[in-house]
Design a protein that fits this description.
The complex is a heterotrimer of chains A (131), B (597) and C (160). With 597 residues, chain B is of the alpha/beta class. Chain B contains 24 helices and 19 strands. In chain B, the strands form six sheets. Chain B has a five-stranded mixed β-sheet with strand order 12-11-15-13-14. In chain B, helix 9 packs parallel to helix 11 and helix 18 packs antiparallel against helix 19. In chain C, helix 1 runs antiparallel to helix 2 and helix 3 packs across helix 4. In chain C, a hairpin with a 2-residue loop joins strand 3 and strand 4. With 160 residues, chain C is α+β, with helices and mostly antiparallel strands. Chain C starts with 6 loop residues before the first helix and ends with a helix. Classes of the chains: A alpha+beta (131), B alpha/beta (597), C alpha+beta (160).
Chain lengths: 131, 597, 160
């Protein structure tokens, strides 16, 4: 380890280390987080759910949206529309987007997450989340 | 961003480790690796979550799911269901005893709702063996602020303004203590952390050292800057191997970062910490005794003054604070004295950690704002009395404290209120007792403890506690008289007024407080020779109800002393002069024909 | 039981010498040295105390004074299985006295003693910090929680 010789260096270490605990900080406050759950059953994975998930994580990081968490969930039952994701904005009911690809990820972030606009591809707005 | 998408936190507190939390962590790691998720999911061990009753605890993030009573064999299901498929393992969720609903987020559990974590802020949240995680939580920012933006005098002013009082027991204002130590001029001064937690039934200091050792190190360095000391010492019980390990790791990492050592953060402040091991003596919690023990001597106290601030370790100015006190310090500088004052009560700002144990549903380590009532702690956080029994008393302050009863339940807890009620804060042990606990026996338990732990230096404590313990033994053995009660009281007062140190002066408290609130129970022991709680064996009497006895001879055959006589198919009789009250007969009787009273 | 001047002992004394030599100063380090000595020898018999006194240039009475003062130091060898019953308050109110009684009976020794075959020793201690599991019994470093008198038989059998 390199010695920390100033306040600035301490801050730098803090920023680097921040990522290691940010997930826990968010978890502590999960009700106020934007939650994105990617359906990761066999058919989801086969249709590219893992790539979608990674794309979300990366894009949110690039956009510096730090009040969002991405997790995975099991089959949500919309096999025809995989990959599917469930998006829950704080205090709102979850909505489901189907046929999500990399481009769609960015559209969801730009429109729905940033501005609250709903976009095409919602396959169920009366969805009840699976525990 | 190569970050983990999931964190699995496994409780590494002593209680959970005793229930195999290490194996659980290994099994989780293995299953995560087998599922090909090692890059997505991080498994780590943290300090204590506090909810020991439901341990071992495993917490899943980011969805903040709290699994209870986890076993190593549950690891496969947790990974396959929760991590891979995103479904919660319902059977491992906490079940609310009120409505039998599964609760997955700790925030919604009664146990956590009223808690506020300051001293325990990082326990169960960070990896205590990784200083980076502490730094990520603003660790060492308070030290940096003090060193670069504040003069030592300003640091002391801020401490005084915060109103923080010593969490080790007596509640002396911390800022004032620092000011005294600063006031004495010397080239060599010491900052000491008292980690000789000796109150039987309290384990908060241990949990802080195990869960967040860096907070103590940072606080000691701040104090070193404030009072002008270069040397830090942690006096820690040798019986706490895990805490010693974690603290040693933290000290080494802090040294590697230059957060301990010479020219910390590029300033001219130098400070380092060394560990010293206690060897099991309760009296060493007293600061003068602790200092003698640090010098390699018998841990006997000396009269104050001189206070350690003037002449302590190797006769140099020394400032001693307890672990929980230290853990509060960095936050005060980060959030300000005014913030701290806004929590708790006017004269006791902040929070207090309690080790809640005994006959209570939710045993655990809790932290609540000062001013919370005992009722909230026992019935809301603690979930009430075990097995639906009736609450009898709560003992606070350990061997130096006293018992509080039903009528005290709505008293807001703070240093002064507890003393006014005849008990004290102590280090924060809180033992709940139910109708089955006998108060003279409880007093005897504590007196046996202090008698054993008395260092023997002063007569009132050495001989006095022995006599008190003998009187209580007589009473619980049915050999007591009303005269005994008089003597208990008189002797207690003499010890309180004449003993040399805090241990002796407070040793009679358990007697005085129970004598005051449970006088009837003492009188029953000495006049009627009965134990209303049914605990004192010598006062019990077993009898066979002639009508119910079928004469099966089972009791007579099992009696270890041959005290039961009778012939087949005829009622048996117990010879009271031979009976040793072991209860074997009653346990064996198939007809409920034997009664105890 | 004493420490004879055999090879194994010589090695142990050499280890202790080395530790003492590694200390920057011996001033005030008696307790640290005794901790190490107990770690090496397992207990602190008279011979070891005399040796430490000589090494640190202290009166033997002072060393004995310290050894006898602290409960962590023991002058009797511990058994292969060091059984400790927690008598902290939380364990006490949940029946630790009954557990201790059952163990004394089962092992046939009193508190502070070691069985003839040096297999078991019995001690009490104050608060392991596992109050959630009260009452607690510790054997070497393994903790047994929520112990009942009926479990004593099985716990001891596990060691044998």
């Amino acid at each position: 380890m390199v010695k920390i010789k100033s306040l600035e260096e301490l801050k730098r270490i803090k920023e680097q280390a921040q990522n290691s605990v940010s997930l826990r900080v968010k978890g502590d406050n999960i009700e106020n987080m934007i939650q994105i759950r990617v359906a990761m059953a066999t058919c989801g994975i086969a249709s590219g759910a893992r790539e979608v998930m990674n794309e979300f994580v990366e894009a949110l990081g690039e956009e510096k949206i730090d009040n969002a968490v991405v997790t995975q969930t099991g089959c949500m039952g919309y096999c025809y529309a995989e990959p599917t994701i469930e998006l829950t904005m704080p205090g709102k009911d979850p909505i489901i987007y189907g046929y999500v690809d990399k481009a769609k990820v960015h559209e969801i972030i730009d429109k729905t997450i940033k501005h609250g606009e709903l976009i095409d591809g919602i396959i169920n707005s009366q969805h009840k989340t699976i525990e | 961003m190569a970050d983990y998408k999931f964190h699995i936190l496994v409780c590494g507190g002593t209680g959970c480790q005793s229930s195999n939390s290490h194996e659980i962590m290994e099994a989780l790691k293995q299953n995560v690796a087998d599922a090909g998720m090692a890059e997505d999911c991080k498994v780590l061990m943290t300090g204590c979550f506090g909810f020991c009753e439901q341990g071992p605890i495993v917490k899943m993030l980011p969805d903040n799911t709290f699994y209870t009573s986890v076993k190593p064999e549950d690891a496969a299901e947790i990974v396959a269901e929760h991590i891979v498929k995103g479904r919660k393992v319902q059977r491992l969720l906490y079940v609310d005893p009120e409505n039998e609903e599964h609760v997955s987020d700790a925030k919604h559990m009664e146990f956590y709702k009223k808690q506020m974590r300051i001293a325990l802020r990082n326990c169960g949240f960070i990896d205590p063996e990784n200083i980076d995680e502490y730094i990520a939580r603003d660790g060492y920012a308070a030290l940096a602020k003090c060193l670069t933006e504040m003069t030592p005098e300003e640091v002391i002013e801020e401490m005084k303004k915060s109103g923080l009082r010593g969490r080790g027991g007596a509640g002396f204002p911390t800022g004032l203590k620092w000011q005294f130590a600063r006031g004495y001029k010397s080239d060599v001064k010491y900052v000491v952390c008292n980690a000789d937690e000796g109150d039987p039934g309290a384990f908060m200091d241990r949990s802080i050292l195990e869960g967040d050792p860096n907070s103590v190190i940072e606080a000691m360095a701040i104090c070193g800057y404030a009072i002008g000391a270069k040397y830090g010492r942690v006096y820690i019980r040798a019986e706490y191997p895990l805490a010693i390990d974690r603290l040693s790791i933290a000290i080494n990492q802090a040294r590697e970062y230059g957060l301990l050592g010479d020219n910390i953060l590029g300033t001219d402040f130098c400070f380092d910490i060394e560990l010293m091991f206690g060897a099991g003596a309760f009296v060493c919690g007293e600061e003068t005794a602790l200092i003698h023990s640090m010098e390699g001597q018998r841990g006997e106290p000396t009269t104050k003054p001189p206070f350690p601030a003037e002449s302590g370790f190797w006769n140099q100015p020394t400032n001693v604070n307890n672990v929980e006190t230290w853990a509060n310090v960095p936050v005060i500088f980060l959030k300000g004295a005014d913030w701290f004052r806004s929590i708790g009560t006017e004269k006791s700002p902040g929070t207090k950690v309690f080790a809640l144990a005994g006959k209570i549903n939710n045993v655990g380590l809790i932290e609540v704002p000062m001013g919370t009532t005992l009722r909230e702690v026992i019935y809301e956080i603690g979930g009430g009395i075990k097995n639906g029994k009736k609450f009898k008393a709560v003992q606070t302050g350990g061997p130096s404290g006293g018992c509080l009863t039903e009528k005290d339940l709505d008293t807001p807890i703070d240093f002064d209120n507890l003393v006014a009620k005849g008990s004290m804060m102590g280090s924060g042990g809180m033992i709940v007792m139910d109708e089955d606990d006998c108060m003279p026996a409880v007093a005897k338990f504590y007196l046996e403890f202090t008698q054993e732990e008395s260092c023997g230096k002063c007569t009132p404590c050495r001989v006095g506690t022995t006599r008190l313990s003998e009187l209580l033994t007589d009473i619980t053995n049915g050999k007591g008289t009303l005269q005994h009660l008089e003597e208990l009281k008189r002797l207690s007062e003499v010890i309180r007024d004449t003993a040399l140190c805090g241990l002796g002066q407070t040793a009679p408290n358990p007697v005085l407080s129970t004598l005051r609130t449970f006088e009837d129970e003492y009188i029953a022991h000495v006049t009627e020779k009965t134990c209303p709680a049914g605990k004192c064996q010598a006062l019990l009497k077993y009898e066979i109800i002639a009508d119910a006895c079928k004469g099966c001879t089972l009791c007579a055959r099992n009696c270890p002393v041959g005290a039961i006589s009778g012939t087949v198919k005829n009622p048996h009789v117990i010879d009271q002069s031979k009976c040793i009250k072991c209860g074997v007969c009653m346990n064996n009787c198939r007809f409920n024909a034997i009664v105890r009273h | 039981m004493g420490c004879n001047e055999n090879g194994a002992d010589r090695e142990k004394y050499a280890e202790l010498d080395q530790f003492i030599a590694s200390l920057p100063t011996t001033k005030g380090e008696l307790i640290r040295v005794l901790h190490r000595a107990q770690g090496i020898f397992g207990y602190l018999p008279k011979e070891v105390q005399v040796y430490v006194a000589k090494k640190l240039d202290l009166p033997v009475s002072k060393v004995y004074g310290v050894v006898s003062f602290y409960s962590f130091f023991t002058m009797k060898p511990k058994g292969k299985y060091d059984v400790s019953v927690c008598l902290g308050t939380a364990c006490y109110v949940r029946g630790a006295d009954k557990i201790l009684e059952a163990l004394t009976k089962k092992l046939g020794i009193g508190v502070g003693d070691t069985t003839e075959d040096a297999k078991f020793s019995l001690r009490t201690l104050r608060c392991v910090g596992a109050c959630g599991l009260a009452p607690v019994v510790m054997i070497n470093n393994k903790v047994y929680g929520r112990v009942t008198p009926d479990m004593v038989e099985g716990i001891i059998a596990e060691c044998e």
